């Protein structure tokens, strides 16, 4: 096997073996991956010759780039960065600022009070008191280690808004007292093509807001906490007058749907857009698409969501995807479709709804592979693509647009001590449409007495 072939095999190898992490065979998975990297790639970096190398390629990416051929291996390092925390430093050892929040400590997913540490405010950092934090479905996946990449203890939360309490000496865009937010990422390389084009979200060295490895080697902790500190590059200004509680989910759900609407030219007057799924992502997608001037059809398996889509969210029409007559009547009438569904579902009928040159954009992430017949794309020169959150420039643009057009997520505000019940309800899809934790008013009451 050539080096090139080995590199291209890494993602496939990882996907085929990832389920082993749920069992006592985890060490076998790590040993096997280490063997592949060491022997097939001829890597002589010591991290591949030890059994406690959890960050594998990412270590070499940061410290030994000359040892690794080809960008595929470097990109794949992102998959491996969060495999575990054995080689990551403990924030308690590195950071002096005591912080209180709630954390999951094992794959049961149960959250409980947790005291941890954050770094001091650096010269380019913004520190803020957390007032609200949205609950994303990825929080649920992460606390239960359903993606096999969780580091414990884990403080979730990447839909964070609050009030600035301190800024570093070189911070320019915000000041003490400003309302700000932090979304899904807190770091990137700032030197790759993606970063140069304001697409930090696609940087191979992307650092996630929680369950990531920061520049100093410590694990990142999220917004289920009383305070947050982040480099100002990753801090969004919340416009005056914008409700903070309903703004929080926009930092993930909002940018996830806004970015493809803009990038693929779907959010324009005269365009007919389909939104598949009416949940946390879908309901916000309808609002943004309408505000951008598109004609919007909600596509759902559930006919009982029709009134909600038309009367509350303002969609122009509603299509029941299980109704073959409705599907047939709508064939070839959509300029684009944003698919927000994370459960496995048929793709071919959606491609049939597109006009020639139409675009199907996936923002939901089904675990199982999707079946896509090539002729469904070839006939009509149709495009199927994916999109993940957005860069920081675009995220600020999205928040400003939402404030201007009064776009808010539909939320249920909860107290901190309700979070475990909220996770249970989220797992049953029993929320309309996003939970938001009132951190500012309810977190302190959950702190154990000393």
Polypeptide structure, described:
By secondary structure, the chain is α/β, with parallel strands linked by helices. The chain folds into 3 domains: 3-80, no CATH class; 91-245 and 416-446, Medium-chain alcohol dehydrogenases, catalytic domain (Quinone Oxidoreductase, Chain A, domain 1); 253-386, Rossmann fold. It has 17 helices and 17 strands. The protein has helices at 3-17, 26-40, 56-63, 71-80, 91-94, 137-143, 193-196, 244-247, 253-263, 282-291, 306-312, 324-330, 348-353, 374-378, 392-404, 419-427, 439-442; strands at residues 97-104, 111-118, 125-135, 160-167, 179-182, 185-187, 207-208, 227-231, 236-237, 272-276, 295-300, 317-320, 334-339, 354-362, 383-386, 411-414, 434-438. The strands form 4 sheets. Strands 3, 4, 5, 8, 9, 16 and 17 form a 7-stranded mixed β-sheet that branches. A 6-stranded parallel β-sheet has the order 12-11-10-13-14-15, sandwiched between helices. Strand 16 (411-414), helix 16 (419-427) and strand 17 form a beta-alpha-beta unit. Helix 1 runs parallel beside helix 4. The longest helix has 15 residues, at 3-17. Residues 109-437 form the Enoyl reductase (ER) domain. Pathway: Aromatic compound metabolism; phenylpropanoid biosynthesis. One of its GO terms (molecular function) is zinc ion binding. This is cinnamyl-alcohol dehydrogenase. Homodimer.
List the helices and strands and how they pair.
Blueprint: H1 3-17, H2 26-40, H3 56-63, H4 71-80, H5 91-94, E1 97-104, E2 111-118, E3 125-135, H6 137-143, E4 160-167, E5 179-182, E6 185-187, H7 193-196, E7 207-208, E8 227-231, E9 236-237, H8 244-247, H9 253-263, E10 272-276, H10 282-291, E11 295-300, H11 306-312, E12 317-320, H12 324-330, E13 334-339, H13 348-353, E14 354-362, H14 374-378, E15 383-386, H15 392-404, E16 411-414, H16 419-427, E17 434-438, H17 439-442
Parallel strand pairs: 10-11, 10-13, 11-12, 13-14, 14-15, 16-17
Antiparallel strand pairs: 1-2, 3-4, 3-8, 3-17, 4-5, 5-9, 6-7
């Amino acid at each position: 096997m050539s080096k090139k072939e080995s590199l291209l095999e890494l993602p496939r190898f990882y996907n085929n073996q990832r389920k082993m992490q749920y069992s006592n065979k985890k060490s076998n998975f790590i040993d096997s991956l280490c063997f592949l990297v060491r022997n097939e790639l001829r890597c002589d970096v010591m991290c591949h010759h030890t059994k406690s190398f959890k960050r594998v390629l990412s270590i070499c990416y940061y410290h030994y780039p000359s040892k690794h051929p080809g960008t595929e291996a470097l990109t794949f390092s992102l998959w491996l960065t969060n495999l575990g925390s054995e080689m990551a430093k403990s924030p308690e050892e590195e950071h002096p600022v005591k912080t209180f929040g709630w954390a999951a400590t094992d794959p049961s997913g149960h959250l409980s009070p947790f005291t941890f540490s954050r770094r001091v405010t650096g010269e380019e950092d913004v520190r803020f008191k957390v007032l609200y934090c949205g609950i994303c479905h990825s929080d649920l996946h992460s606390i239960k280690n359903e993606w096999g990449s969780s580091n414990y203890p884990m403080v979730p939360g990447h839909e964070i808004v609050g009030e600035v309490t301190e800024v570093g000496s070189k911070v320019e865009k915000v000041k003490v007292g400003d309302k700000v937010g932090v979304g899904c990422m807190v770091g990137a390389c700032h030197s790759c093509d993606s970063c140069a084009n304001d697409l930090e979200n696609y940087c191979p060295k992307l650092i996630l807001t929680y369950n990531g490895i920061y520049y100093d080697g410590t694990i990142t902790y999220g917004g289920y906490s009383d305070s947050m500190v982040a480099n100002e590059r990753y801090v969004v200004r919340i416009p005056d007058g914008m409700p903070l509680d309903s703004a929080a989910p926009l930092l993930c759900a909002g940018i996830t749907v806004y970015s493809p609407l803009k990038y693929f030219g779907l959010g324009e007057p005269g365009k007919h857009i389909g939104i598949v799924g009416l949940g946390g992502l879908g309901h916000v997608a309808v609002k943004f698409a309408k505000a951008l001037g598109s004609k919007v059809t909600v596509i759902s398996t559930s006919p009982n969501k029709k009134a909600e889509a038309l009367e509350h969210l303002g969609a122009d029409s509603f299509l029941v995807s299980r109704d073959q007559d409705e599907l047939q009547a709508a064939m070839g009438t959509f300029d684009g479709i944003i698919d927000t569904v994370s459960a496995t579902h048929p793709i071919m009928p959606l491609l049939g709804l597109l006009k020639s040159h139409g675009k199907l954009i996936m923002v939901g992430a089904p675990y199982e592979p999707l079946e896509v017949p090539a002729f469904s794309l070839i006939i009509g020169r149709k495009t199927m693509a994916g999109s993940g959150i957005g860069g920081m420039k675009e995220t600020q643009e999205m928040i400003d647009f939402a404030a201007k057009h009064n776009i808010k997520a539909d939320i249920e505000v909860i107290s901190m001590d309700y979070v475990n019940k909220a996770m249970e309800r989220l797992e049953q899809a029993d929320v309309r449409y996003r939970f938001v934790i009132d951190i500012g008013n309810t977190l302190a009451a959950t702190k154990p007495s000393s």
